[in-house]
């Protein structure tokens, strides 16, 4: 039974007391009704695993975020125009065409070639923190690492990375917010303009051929294809930059906090490096970086016995689906040997995360490094701070202290679990 009457809106998740007990809040929502109309958000809210997966892969729904650009506020419209050209917010056939163009850079095999570089980057960060015996896992590791990896892939020189990140933040905030004021909308639109201008210059730079491992090399094929619209290509590079680092940043922070709060689970992983790939999946399920996906009914339809009108939005709450006891027995327990169950932290269906293999690899490398190199880490300093967002779940800071920093740790050779892509099955 729910512990309180159903709140009128998913918006209540933003109340500070509910951010701290988000999964209890979701449980109350789900156990009352796993699909309900939220009049404050003007959308259906889906919290059950079955309804989330069936909707995410259902061709009766569209992923187009702004069906009527002219209805979008003047300040947000420039950003909305760019987002509308990104694969994440497109439907077939444009979606499949764009995905095919970029997916070669993100196959598990392509991504595995990055493993040593990611390990070296993590080692450098931890070694730098060692003399002080303190580390802000978010600011020092979870933020710079995924940005460095995606910039490496795109061939962005090191000196340009911080400015790219400063453009990415307001855009991610705009995507993640349910209500934006005009100043934030304007800032997000302007940041997108700067980012596109930068990427245009980067992709057309004639300073010798792009390094062979970079996504820029792959994109060169796109830029040389006369049928490929260059602005569309740029919009999708921007998507990779934003999706490629904000989400992974949140994942690393959330996973580290979960391990710090479950010392026995951390000890188990220290003893059993072979469990790291399963731990990455379980940690993604347990505290998912992306909490919401949006779909819109293409026409009047029936979903799980409810009548959905054409154009109505359905918000799929991944974080709630990942704690649904019908899919995951004892869902609030962190269990690296959990049998079966498919989490939806990377989504489900045709839009299944393109960067899943990369995110898994980054997660596996970071977990192994934190556990082996900081064996006595503990929370210290300011309490971890959560960001306030309905769409994303992440931390602003996570300060730890440690006294031991073993120099010679054995690298297990453990790799990320190969990306399973339900997209292929549901198409
Ligand atoms: C732990 C980290 C990550 C999480 C939790 C995550 C989550 C997701 C989710 C839930 C979706 C599906 C959205 C929907 O169906 O509406 C998605 C799509 C996507 N993600 Fe990720 N993501 C992560 C990392 C990455 C990385 C590292 C990249 C790229 C380098 C990336 C690129 C993309 C792209 C391009 C899409 C759109 C795919 C499509 O529309 O076909 N993501 N991601």
Essential attributes:
disordered C terminus; alpha+beta; five-stranded mixed beta sheet; binds protoporphyrin IX containing FE; Cytochrome p450; three-stranded antiparallel beta sheet; 18 helices; globular; 427 residues; single chain
Question: Could you describe the 3D structure shown?
Answer:
The structure is a single chain. The protein contains 18 helices and 12 strands. The chain is α+β, with helices and mostly antiparallel strands and 427 residues long. The chain has a single domain, classed as Cytochrome p450. Strands 1-2-8-5-3 form a 5-stranded mixed sheet. The model is unreliable at 416-427 (pLDDT under 50). Bound molecules: protoporphyrin IX containing FE. The site of protoporphyrin IX containing FE has 26 residues, from α13 and α17.
Main sheet record:
5 strands, mixed
The CATH first-level class comes to Mainly Alpha
Q: What count of domains describes the coordinates?
A: 1
Please state the second-level CATH architecture.
Answer: Orthogonal Bundle
Sequence stretches where pLDDT stays below 50 over 5 or more residues: 416-427
CATH overall fold name: Cytochrome p450
Structural class: alpha+beta
Question: In CATH, what is the homologous superfamily?
Answer: Cytochrome P450
Compressed to H and E, one letter per element, the order equals HHEEHEHHHHEHHHHHHHHEEEEHHEEEEH
Report the end-to-end length measured between terminal Cα atoms: 37 Å
Q: Approximately how much helix is present in the residues?
A: 40-55%
H/I helix tally: 18
| Spatial strand sequence of the major β-sheet | 1-2-8-5-3
User: Nearest-angstrom radius of gyration?
Assistant: 21 Å
Amount of beta strand? 5-15%
Bound compounds, each kind once, are: protoporphyrin IX containing FE
* pLDDT averaged over residues: 89
Shape: globular
DSSP E strands, number? 12
């Amino acid at each position: 039974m729910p512990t309180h009457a159903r709140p009128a809106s998913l918006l209540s998740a933003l109340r500070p007391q509910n951010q701290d007990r988000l999964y209890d809040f979701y449980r109350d929502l789900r156990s009352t009704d796993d699909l309900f109309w939220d009049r404050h958000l003007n959308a259906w809210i889906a919290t059950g695993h079955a309804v989330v997966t069936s909707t995410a892969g259902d061709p009766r729904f569209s992923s187009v975020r702004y069906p009527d650009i002219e209805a979008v506020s003047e300040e947000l419209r420039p950003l909305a125009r760019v987002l509308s050209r990104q694969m994440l917010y497109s439907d077939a056939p444009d979606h499949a065409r764009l995905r095919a163009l970029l997916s070669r850079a993100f196959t598990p095999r392509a991504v595995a070639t990055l493993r040593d570089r990611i390990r070296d980057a993590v080692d450098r960060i931890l070694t730098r923190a060692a003399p002080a015996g303190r580390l802000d896992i978010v600011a020092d590791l979870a933020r710079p690492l995924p940005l460095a990896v995606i910039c490496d892939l795109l061939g962005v020189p090191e000196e340009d990375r911080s400015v790219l990140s400063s453009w990415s933040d307001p855009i991610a905030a705009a995507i993640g917010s349910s209500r934006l004021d005009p100043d934030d909308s304007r800032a997000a639109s302007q940041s997108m303009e700067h980012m596109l201008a930068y990427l245009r210059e980067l992709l057309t730079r004639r300073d010798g051929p792009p390094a062979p491992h970079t996504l820029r090399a792959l994109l060169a094929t796109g830029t040389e294809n006369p049928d490929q619209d260059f602005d569309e290509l740029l919009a999708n590079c921007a998507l990779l930059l934003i999706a490629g680092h904000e989400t992974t940043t949140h994942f690393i922070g959330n996973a580290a906090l979960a391990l710090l709060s479950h010392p026995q689970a951390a000890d188990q992983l220290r003893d059993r490096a072979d469990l790291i790939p399963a731990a990455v999946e379980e940690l993604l399920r347990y505290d998912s970086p992306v909490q919401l996906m949006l779909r819109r009914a293409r026409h009047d339809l029936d979903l799980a016995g409810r009548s959905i009108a054409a154009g109505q939005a359905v918000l799929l709450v991944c974080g709630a689906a990942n704690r649904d006891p019908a899919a995951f027995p004892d869902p609030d327990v962190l269990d690296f040997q959990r049998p079966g169950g498919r989490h939806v932290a990377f989504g489900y269906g045709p839009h299944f995360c393109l960067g899943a293999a990369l995110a898994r690899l980054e997660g596996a490398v970071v977990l192994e490094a934190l556990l082996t190199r900081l064996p006595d880490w503990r929370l210290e300093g300011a309490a971890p701070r959560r960001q306030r967002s309905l769409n994303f779940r992440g931390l602003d800071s996570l300060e730890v202290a440690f006294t031991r920093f073993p120099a010679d740790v054995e690298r297990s050779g453990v790799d990320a679990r190969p990306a399973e892509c339900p997209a292929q099955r549901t198409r």
